[in-house]
Amino acid sequence: MVMQLQQLTLRAIAVLLRRHPSTISREIRRHSQLGRYDSAHAASRARVLRHTPRRQSRLCSSSELFQVIIEMLRIGCSPQQIASRLRCIWPDHPERHVSHETLYLAIYAYPRGELKRQLISYLRQGKGKRRPRTQSAIRRERYPAELSIHLRPPEVADRLVPGHWENDLVIGANNRSAVATMVKRTSRFVILAKLDAPTADAAAQAITREMSRMVPSLLKTMTHDQGSEMARHAEITAHTGMKIYFADPHSPWQHASTAAMKTPMAYCASICQKARISPWSPRSDWTKLPTC
After folding, report:
1. What does the alpha-carbon distance between residue 225 and residue 248 come to, in Å, rounded to a whole number?
2. pLDDT tens readout for residues 183-197
3. 3-state secondary structure of 107
4. β-pairing verdict for 178-184 and 243-246
5. What are the residues whose beta carbons fall under 8 Å from the beta carbon of 182, sequence distance 6 or more?
6. N or C: which end of the chain has fewer CB within 10 A?
7. What are the residues whose beta carbons fall under 8 Å from the beta carbon of 152, sequence distance 6 or more?
8. Rounded CA gap, 74 and 84, in Å?
């Protein structure tokens, strides 16, 4: 109001207040009376709007939909799976459709106390806080450029020629255990190798041991992420004959077979741990596992 009385332009006011000129223009247009900006009216309206939510949440803790979602979480469904299943269960009721981000908000942001701890424990990873969705613009390459996935033979992407594999590590809690997973890209055939320790030496020994049992014609290439556990990749190539390529940093879609299997495997391993059953036990012991 004082600046208007001084006959300053909108751009001059924006420079002094460090705001965009369009922001100043909208503010004056909304709260002007008789051609002058009314700061008292603007402050009163701001106090009212502060306590008025822009939209109501679809997931109230007392709603039927929220109870259905809790039951799905309890049996081991991920938020992405729940969001997809809700659309299949109620295709004609868009008010019952929620995104996985809405589910994560209902788990991490809204509840408090015991309910929040209970919901987080139902998640497969069970982390108390979410990782930031944005990644740093600086992405460090760990391996030489000549081993980049972009130099991989074109036949690998088609998933038609056998002999091409993907590899990843599933690391247990506190880095006390690790399992190497090798997935054939054509048939999704999976090989698991237990590691003595989550180190590069143990990974090289386990991968070499398991892959050496295969026919040499089925050992052409292997794709891995930028993890440090493949620091001994030259030894694996020397013993198995497989050329190893590395995906770009933070690009799980480039090795989607292992990336899609990693979380379900870790979840099953956690169930085995809760049931005090080793995943490497005889199959007769697996009858003790709870159904999920």
Report:
1. 7
2. 999 988 888 888 888
3. helix
4. unpaired
5. 165, 166, 167, 190, 191, 192, 193, 207, 210, 211, 222
6. C
7. 221, 223, 245
8. 17
Q: Where in the sequence of the chain do the CATH 3.30.420.10 domains occur?
A: 148-274
Q: How many CB atoms lie within 10 A of CB 166?
A: 24
Token pair belonging to 137? 């613009």
Widest CA span in the chain:
87
Question: 86: closest CA among 94, 156, 122, 149?
Answer: 94
User: E strand or H helix at 167, and its extent?
Assistant: strand 164-171
CATH topology of domain 148-274: Nucleotidyltransferase; domain 5 (3.30.420)
34-65 pLDDT tens trace: 777 888 888 888 888 887 766 666 777 778 88
Q: Which of 115, 112, 125, 116 is nearest to 78 (CA)?
A: 125
Q: How many residues does the chain have?
A: 292
CB contact set of 73 (below 8 Å; sequence gap of 6+): 79, 82, 107, 119, 122, 123
- Coil, strand, or helix at residue 25? helix
Contact 195, 206 (CB under 8 A): yes
DSSP E strand stretches across 32-117: 32-33, 36-37
Residues 114-135, mean pLDDT to the nearest whole number: 72
pTM: 0.51
State the sign of the Cα–Cα–Cα–Cα dihedral 185, 188, 189, 191. positive
Any long-range contacts for 117-125 (C-beta under 8 Å, 24+ apart)?
119/70, 119/73, 122/70, 122/73, 122/74, 122/76, 123/73, 123/78, 123/79, 124/76, 124/78, 124/263, 124/264, 124/266, 124/267, 124/270, 125/263, 125/266
Placement of tokens 């295969």 in the chain? 214
Half-sphere exposure of 73 (CA within 13 A, CB side): 23
